[in-house]
Amino acid sequence: MRGGLATCVVGFALLALVRQEWAQAAVEGPPRVDSQALQALDIPAQDLAQALERFSRATGMAVLVDRELTRGRRSVGIKGRYSAREGLSGLLAGSGLMARYARSDAFTLQVPPATPVPPLQGAGARRAARLNSSYASALQQAVERSLCRSSLTRPGRFRALLQLWIGADGAVQHSRLVSSTGDLQRDEALVLGLAATRVERPAPSSLRQPLTLLLIPDTTGKRMDCKEWEGASGV
Fold first, then answer.
1. Which pTM value belongs to this model?
2. Which of 32, 85, 191, 223 has a CA that sits 20 to 30 A from residue 112's CA?
3. Domains (ranges, CATH) in the chain?
4. What is the pLDDT of residues 104-126, one digit of tens each?
């Protein structure tokens, strides 16, 4: 019990220290880190907590994150020249988390909020059902088009459970890989592919987010024809 209490006290002390640093920096003047300047980042896919530590060291961005929030989550790899914000956005793709900035060079993480849906009855409920059904078809086409761009993520070959948050413009804003495909390389390709997905239809107001997608193997033995989608490869 004493060991657990000591660990708890250390955790609170660290949290207070980080908050104090943020507060002191805010008083002393403008941030020392330009979050818009391009810089070379090379952070391989790994546990999210470790990736964030490496990102913080590389960019100078201050991060305050509850370890329980990052537990069991992985990051995708990023390599290239990015601004700190672009790099962080790529790092968080598929984690189910989003950044909340306390300042331009300091952030914490949170789960994107779910969209509540008011209960509908009668004609309103029937109209909402038709819109949702139509949107579901557009979403399926967009996801299939995205997955067909890589032989790793071609639909019908693996099982995965995902959650998507889609913006008003149809673009995937956040995603979370709830269950792995069993192949870390495929997981990363899947997350990166979905990050570039755009649904060519506005989401109905009755749609609750996040959307949950279940990708399952094709048990019929029939290969999906991905050639109809522009950009398909490896088929």
1. 0.63
2. 32
3. 31-110 (3.55.50.30), 123-228 (3.30.1150.10)
4. 888 999 888 776 555 545 555 45
